[in-house]
Amino acid sequence: MSEATLLRSAALGDAGALEKVIRTFAPKVYAYLCGMLGDEREAEDGMQEVFVRAARAIERYDAGSDPEQWIFGLARRVAIDVRPTPSAPPGETPPAEGDIAEWARRSLRALPAELREVVVFRNILKWDVEHIARAVGVAPQEVSRRLQQAYARLTEGMRGIR
Hints:
Elements: H1 3-11, H2 15-37, H3 40-57, H4 67-82, H5 100-110, H6 113-124, H7 129-136, H8 140-157
Helix pairs in contact: 1-2, 2-3, 2-4, 2-6, 3-4, 6-8, 7-8
């Protein structure tokens, strides 16, 4: 059964279809929220909120729209609503010893949301530029520009790593 068919069935009250939708999208939504929020607990809470919102809005799902785009539209709004914890200030150097992965998460979180999300979609979810453009609602050239800007900022911030 296709994702669109599952969403239509869920909209008609089929609880089993809604459960399948959640199982289908949960891993990707969680990975996206981990990247956007930089915190696994916040990502878990955010993922629950995405699917609560999906269940509440399921009757309004447009059968002609892409189910993945619809779910990620909800996830994007949740990521904005959660407001991540303070992040690495620009120019913070990585620790000489310690958790470089945590520093990298903080550096990613320090990017503006519109730059951070294209990095998350591209590098965590492995979406191509056209797919990202559809999800974000901009031209592919704008996605490429945002990726380039995000990578430049991250590279600048990593100059202290040896």
